[in-house]
Write a structure and sequence with these properties.
The chain contains six helices and twelve strands. The chain has about 220 residues and is an alpha/beta fold. It is globular, with a radius of gyration of 17 Å.
């Protein structure tokens, strides 16, 4: 087990791990594998369940520091959120989720993970959580809607500190089923460029996620 370039993320062969907090020992979030080495418990980070894990396994180095404040749009039940929580030992995740069903599971996760702030709200209306969410160091979005690029842009403009990075996970079939996935990724990238964002990379997530790509930007 060796630490990667990102502090808090470890790798063993072709599998990523994060360290389970001491108050979460022996606790799984989504039936992930737990590996105990000395006094540490490592949680396997499944790239077929987490697009961020898939992106990192594509050898993309994303800067996530332990003291970051992160805005996470589309937190769902908290699979990826939980691993980011492991990494942010001195930071906070503001987890936006629109589904009450998913939020119920996310709240369970937050009982012991105090660095996660769950917010039941629609990310298309970023003004609704402005009294809770501060300016953040990193923004991550995983929302399957046709207007996902607009949601991404509006939240970046309101919350992301200048000269920082953000990632949008683009699900091609949610935007236009008549277009080839690559054309959709290019369309979304153009919309982001026109809003003033700089495109740093476009990464196809296959074989982990079909018809998905991560678009990494800087504001």
């Amino acid at each position: 087990m060796r630490e990667t370039k990102i502090k808090g993320i470890y790798k063993d062969r072709n599998q990523l791990f994060t360290i389970n907090p001491s108050n979460c020992k022996n606790k799984k979030i989504y039936n992930e594998k737990l590996v105990k080495i000395k006094d540490k418990e490592f949680r396997s980070w499944n790239p077929y369940r987490s697009k961020l894990s898939a992106l990192l396994l594509k050898k993309i180095n994303i800067e996530i520091k332990p003291d970051f404040n992160i805005l996470y749009l589309g937190a769902a039940t908290g699979t990826t959120v939980s691993h980011i929580s492991d990494i942010l030992v001195n930071g906070t995740i503001y987890a936006i989720e629109n589904s009450a069903v998913s939020m119920k599971k996310l709240l369970e996760l937050c009982k012991k993970r105090k660095n996660v702030v769950p917010i039941l709200e629609d990310a298309f209306h970023p003004d609704r959580y402005q009294t809770i969410v501060p300016n953040v160091d990193f923004l991550y979005q995983d929302i399957s809607q046709r207007n996902q690029s607009n949601i991404f842009i509006e939240n970046i403009e309101r919350y992301l500190k200048k000269d920082n990075k953000a990632i949008i996970m683009v699900k091609a079939r949610s935007i236009d089923v008549s277009m080839k996935p690559k054309e959709v990724y290019e369309k979304v990238s153009l919309e982001l460029r026109e809003s003033g964002l700089k495109i740093l990379d476009i990464v196809d997530l296959s074989p982990f996620e079909k018809d998905h790509a991560a678009v990494i930007v800087k504001n």
